[in-house]
Design a protein that fits this description.
The structure is a single chain. The protein contains 13 helices and 15 strands. The strands form four sheets. It has a seven-stranded mixed sheet with strand order 1-9-8-5-4-2-3, with helices on both faces. It has a three-stranded antiparallel sheet with strand order 7-6-13, with no helix packed on it. Helix 4 packs across helix 8. The protein is globular and about 70 Å long.
Length: about 375
């Protein structure tokens, strides 16, 4: 019925970014090779200025090797003890690893229908040992950040924002990552602002946290070769920082494109009367989201995924299991049924192809295949 057109998940995103900046990236790489400074040079300094300007110039910014390291170093900067608890959303697979590796007690919380941490569930988990909450702005969306911030501040609990998927998102006009004590960012290639390797950054309003993190990302050194404490290293290469600086030149246009792709998806879902079958995971009403993924909640998810594949449409699942059902985290002691909303979502969510250069024609094709799938399912029921 359909002419099969291959539509990859992030293919055009990477291809377009590479093509648009190819000559500039080659020139940048040659300049860095010629200069011979591969870490902590002009490009990293320039990136920090760009991030300062985008986020909040009253805070402090430092770059690190990855979003994972941003969360790990941020938690370590709080100097928590093994019995101290850090709450995080149970569906945020990548976030769980640095929390556990930091040596604290990881405490997962259930989520709401949009996959964001449920505020009431979080509140019920708070004990005298709760020292921090890591709020993840999954898919580039948000919950009510200000309500969570105000509540945690009133309890003297550290507030960490995981913005790995949400660079560019604003809440009531303010950039995510600047509401809490610390904001963590990832620049993995597929992120809203992604480089051609890996990288991360940390924003904080507190100088004492910033001072610790800067030392912790370089062997605990305040002065070269005179470490004040034992630490590893987490460095962003000059080239990766330089690529991000190139992308900053078009950042507003690129983010507008991402929002327009999402808007067209929503428009066509409505036009094709797919709402009874397709629920789109959304964001708080006060959030101006820069989407990272386009995630839908559907019945017969696995069958739909296979049907899309049949027509050369790639789709993904972010993520196939909540953390407590992943073997590596069985030690946390939870069982199936403990986080019902997240568990149900994990069986129904599907990420459709999404990038800033996805054409209207491609979206029409994707959704026409989705509509055909549910049309066939409805006929079989009859």
């Amino acid at each position: 019925m359909f002419k099969k057109r291959p539509i990859n998940f992030f293919f055009n995103h990477a291809k377009f970014a590479g093509g648009r900046h190819k000559a500039r990236r080659i020139r940048l790489f040659s300049q860095i090779l010629k200069k011979g400074v591969f870490f902590s040079g002009n490009q990293v300094s320039r990136l920090i200025k760009n991030l300062h300007s985008w986020l909040d110039e009253d805070g402090f910014v430092t770059t690190v090797a990855s979003g994972h390291d941003a969360i790990l170093l941020s938690i370590q900067s709080l100097k928590l003890k093994p019995n101290d608890e850090v709450i995080f959303p149970v569906n945020s697979y990548p976030t769980a690893f640095p929390i556990v590796l930091s040596g604290v007690k990881a405490v997962p919380a259930d989520v709401d229908k949009n996959g964001q941490m449920d505020i009431d569930a979080m509140k019920k988990l708070i004990t005298k040992n709760t020292k921090a909450v890591a709020l993840v702005h999954l898919y580039g969306n948000t919950t009510d950040i200000e309500s969570i911030a105000n509540y945690l501040f009133s309890k003297n609990i550290f507030f960490i924002e995981d913005c790995a998927q949400a660079f560019g998102t604003r809440f009531n006009g303010k950039p995510v990552g600047t509401f809490g004590h610390i904001g963590c960012f990832s620049f993995y290639p597929t992120k809203n602002l992604g480089t051609v390797g890996d990288g991360g950054a940390i924003w904080t309003k507190h100088k004492y946290l910033y001072d610790y993190i800067v030392k912790a990302k370089s062997y605990g050194e305040g002065v070269r070769y005179f470490s004040e404490f034992v630490a590893g290293h987490s460095r962003m290469p000059e080239f990766q920082a330089g690529v991000l600086n190139l992308y900053f030149s078009n950042i507003e246009k690129d983010f507008t494109k991402r929002k327009n792709v999402r808007s067209y998806y929503l428009q066509r879902i409505n036009d094709l009367k797919l709402s009874p079958f397709v629920k789109v995971l959304g964001s708080n009403i006060n959030s101006d989201s820069t989407p990272h993924l386009f995630v839908i909640n559907v019945s017969k998810r696995n069958l739909l995924k296979n049907f899309l594949k049949k027509y050369n449409i790639e789709s993904n699942i972010h993520y196939p299991a909540p953390v407590h059902l992943v073997p590596a985290f069985y030690f946390l002691g939870y069982k199936k049924g403990d986080f019902p909303v997240a568990e149900k979502l994990s069986e129904r969510i599907l990420s459709l192809p999404f990038h800033q250069n996805l054409s209207h024609k491609a979206i029409d094709y994707i959704l026409s295949v989705v509509r055909e799938f549910y049309h066939l399912q409805t006929r079989r029921v009859r």
